[in-house]
Design a protein that fits this description.
The structure holds 2 protein chains of 2 kinds. By secondary structure, chain A is of the alpha/beta class. Chain A is about 40% helix and about 15% strand. Chain B is about 80% helix and about 0% strand. Chain B is built from 3 helices and no strands. The chains are: A alpha/beta, B mainly alpha.
Chain lengths: ~750, ~80
């Protein structure tokens, strides 16, 4: 923004020591626009006003009691005639004749520049400690050597950076800094006793304005006090920072020792670079250590002034102030709240906060998709997953699908959404866990959603993840990978209702098995395609030969109620009464079931050992009351004839009973009869096993990837069906309770 | 303004669009790679800060400080002996 006139404003109180020098340096500036010099004096008695008037400054005199750092600067800007007001303090001397031109050049960097500031240089003769500290401090912006324009865009990444390290964007010093009048009209100084510059910078940055560091706008500014005076100054400074910004400087013996050691070492490098060595260096280092120790003590005490008695505060204060008075300032909405939707920010120890912030109902957040997105050769896919345990079957399917998508040329990223806050591993550690324990994916993995920026398609993979995914920004399409009817994982309960609610959010779904897709279409009115899962044929090799007699291997994962373990064990108990020689081998559970007949329980078994067990057994049992288990397919791949439960969920995926599995009605007698039929008729069992092997061979993981990609492209290519989307009026209780329609009417 | 009316002959717009899409996808991938590194750095920083803020860490602080001092003294005395 072009600045047509400028005001240099200096609040003064007994500043005669440097004021003459400061004003003369101001007078030597080379600029070709009108310059006004304005002094706001709050009751000087040392001749400061006379110096200012003599050197041509306009002077405004205010009573000392009316002075405040924020309020007085507001007064100065209100009185100033310039488009921009450059603030100096009474002891900050412009270091060159280009100081003011540099400030003006800072505003010219962009139309939205609200603040410009320059570096401070230690005054000649002052301690090396300040020279080094100032140099290092101002290297934060543009390396201390380049013009640095910074602003806070609203990307997740920038906001995440800002939250972690707000200082870089928030820092502004009106010891030597300029404010654009247009920006000040929108966001004036807060009338606070201290840290007014940090506050105005925070508010302007968060409002989206730009701030500029210009290395040419340097001033000489430093203080050289005896140690006791420094202690009291730091006490005042950090008490005020605590009162205004709530900043609490770390304090403690170890912290102080580390700080002193670290800072002194930096001073040593600095002084060595200046050619100092020997005794002078050691003496200077002693002064450094003393200064840093004094600073650590003063800052630590100041930040904890509320815990000190008033007389102690008064004694420690350079201003002689005995009070501790926190100041109400507006909270930073970005530092407090953040850019991610509330449902995407689980709170520790508040497990269902994501559900709470998921209401009231609202439609999916989607970006308008360009027509070409369906034809893109390489899509970007961002997957949100719940945390996992080693060996989780559902996650194995997801990771295999991700790998399939990668192999088909798409780019994937994985975000782990953990509402319990118990997943402590870093993204890289999680990635290694996936690569070593599941599938060698290429995708980057993130613990949490902080770094989310969106993708062509966002994919929710489980009911928790559907809540944050609904509100996450930056996606043309959102897909829900539904592996099972998850409400049924819970008793009819709050979790049941919340899981079911995800089917009313308007996602387009890709479901495991046609049965699941049909539920989503028919009961919830969603657009749903289906996919089938593959089997690892390298591990689960076919065995057509002899098997151990009457050995029944049972997937007895008791923790997963939908596996119907009690039903399997009841059937086996009947069978054992009739045929005591039947050998029963259980596997798959940490929480081992204890049937009342003799058996072997192998617990959780690695795949290779499991494959061997399948190849030796006579009959396999892997029941599914919802979508069928991949364990059944692995048994089928190994040539083990399988008994499943009869039901549409199984037959829609595996065909009619006797084709590739034998299906039993869900009662103990039928289960026992089915097992017995396979044990007694090896030829029939072998025929089923061969057909089963062909069945899984026709369904490799590549086919699953093809089906998923096909569904994705099909969704992207056609507009959303308005009738299949989100509805605020959808029923709020179970649609399929007990397997039948339930409460379909309007609900208040 | 009609895009077709301004189409320059001989320019393969489809190839250009595909190239732009490919570059956008590469940038997306690069962002996630860099963001993953940053997330890891923030994770370990947080771990360190949590540990240093713990009660056990704070009560054992004097021991670590003493160890630092002893090591420094040992190093100094070794250097002094070496100089002799």
């Amino acid at each position: 923004m072009k600045i047509a006139s400028v005001t240099i404003a200096i609040p003064v109180l007994n500043g005669a020591a440097y004021l003459d020098e400061v004003l003369r340096a101001v007078g030597r500036q080379h600029v070709d626009i009108p310059v006004e010099v304005l002094i706001v004096d709050s009751g000087s008695t040392d001749g400061s006003v006379e110096i200012a008037r003599r050197l041509g400054a306009r002077v405004i005199e205010i009573p000392r009691a009316e002075f405040s750092h924020g309020g007085t600067r507001n007064l100065a800007i209100a009185e100033a005639k310039g488009d921009a007001v450059v603030f100096l303090t009474q002891d900050a001397t412009p270091a060159s004749e280009q100081w003011l031109a540099s400030m003006i050049e800072g505003f010219a960097q962009a139309d939205d520049v609200a603040l410009v500031f320059g570096p401070h240089i230690a005054r000649p003769g002052h301690s090396h400690v300040f020279a080094r500290e100032m140099r290092d401090h101002f290297r934060t912006w543009g390396g201390g050597e380049r013009i640095d324009v910074h602003r806070l865009d609203r990307s997740s990444e920038t906001i995440a950076d800002y939250r972690r390290y707000p200082y870089k964007l928030q820092f502004f010093s009106d010891v030597n800094g300029a404010v654009a009048r247009w920006a000040w009209k929108q966001i004036p100084y807060r009338e606070v006793p201290y840290a007014e510059d940090q506050l105005i910078a925070r508010e302007m940055i968060e409002a989206g304005y730009a701030k500029v560091f210009h290395p040419g706008a340097a001033v000489y500014h430093s203080h050289d006090y005896p140690p006791a005076r420094f202690l009291r100054r730091y006490f005042d400074e950090f008490r005020s920072l605590r009162e205004v910004l709530g900043h609490v400087e770390p304090f403690g013996l170890e912290h102080a020792a580390r700080t002193v050691f670290h800072q002194t070492r930096l001073d040593r490098e600095f002084m060595k670079g200046q050619g100092m060595e020997g005794l002078p260096l050691r003496r200077a280092l002693a002064r450094s250590a003393r200064h840093h120790a004094v600073r650590a003590l003063g800052s630590g005490l100041g930040a904890r002034a509320d815990r000190l008695p008033a007389p102690v505060r008064k004694a420690l204060s350079l201003d002689g102030r005995s009070t501790f008075s926190p100041v109400e300032v507006p909270a930073s909405p970005l530092l407090e709240e953040g850019p991610l939707p509330a449902s995407a920010r689980p709170r520790p120890r508040d497990y269902f906060s994501f559900v709470r912030s998921g209401f009231p109902r609202r439609p999916l957040t989607l970006e308008p998709a360009p027509g070409s997105v369906a034809e893109k050769e390489s899509l970007t896919l961002a997957w949100v997953l719940p945390p996992w345990d080693r060996g989780s079957g559902g996650h194995m399917t997801i990771f295999r699908l991700i790998r399939m998508m990668e192999q088909r040329g798409h780019r994937c990223s994985i975000f782990v959404f953990d509402p319990s806050g118990t997943e402590r591993d870093s993204g890289e550690e999680l990635r290694e866990r996936i690569r070593s324990g599941f599938v060698p994916i290429e995708a980057q993995v993130f613990n949490g959603l902080e770094y989310w920026i969106g993708a062509d398609v966002g994919i929710a993979t489980q009911w928790w993840t559907a809540y944050p995914m609904r509100d996450l920004p930056g996606c043309y399409e959102k897909l829900y990978l539904v592996q099972d009817f998850e409400p049924a994982f819970h008793a009819y309960s709050a979790e049941y209702i919340w899981a079911e609610e995800t089917y009313r959010m308007g996602y387009r779904c890709v479901a495991y098995t046609p049965w699941m897709a049909r539920i989503l279409r028919q009961d919830y009115g969603l657009e749903a395609e289906s996919f089938e899962c593959g089997t690892d044929l390298d591990v689960y090799r076919f065995q057509d030969g002899s098997r151990e007699p009457a050995t029944v291997t049972v997937y007895a994962r008791k923790e997963t109620a939908r596996r119907g373990v009690e039903l399997a064990l009841s059937g086996l108990a009947l069978l054992k009464e009739r045929r005591p020689d039947t050998r029963v081998v259980l596997f798959g559970s940490h929480d081992r079931p204890k049937p009342a007949f003799d058996h072997v329980d192998l617990g959780v078994v690695p795949p290779e050992r499991l494959a061997d067990l399948y190849r030796r057994s006579t009959v396999g049992i892997a029941f599914s009351l919802t979508t069928h288990s991949l364990v059944a397919q692995e048994m089928m791949a190994s040539g083990l004839p399988v008994v499943e439960l009869a039901g549409d969920n199984v037959s829609s995926a595996l065909g009619e009973s006797g084709e590739v599995v034998l299906q039993a009605d869900p009662d103990p007698v039928s289960v026992a009869a089915a097992i017995e039929a396979l044990v007694d008729d090896p030829a029939r069992a072998r025929a089923i096993a061969r057909r089963a092997r062909s069945f899984v061979e026709e369904r490799p993981w590549e086919r699953s990837g093809e089906q998923l990609e096909g569904a994705l492209r099909s969704f992207l290519a056609r507009p959303r069906d308005p009738a299949a989307g989100f509805s605020r009026e959808a029923p709020r209780v179970a649609a399929t309770l007990g397997g039948r329609p339930y409460d379909r009417g309007p609900h208040e | 303004m009609s895009g077709e009316g301004n189409a320059e002959p001989g320019i393969d717009w489809k190839a250009r669009a595909e190239d732009a899409e490919r570059r956008a996808a590469e940038a997306w991938e690069a962002y996630h790679r860099i963001a993953a590194e940053r997330a890891d750095a923030a994770h370990y920083k947080h771990l360190l800060e949590s540990r240093e803020a713990s009660f056990s860490w704070r009560i054992t602080a004097p021991l670590r400080l003493a160890r630092l001092v002893v090591r420094w003294l040992v190093r100094k005395s070794q250097n002094a002996l070496r100089r002799r």
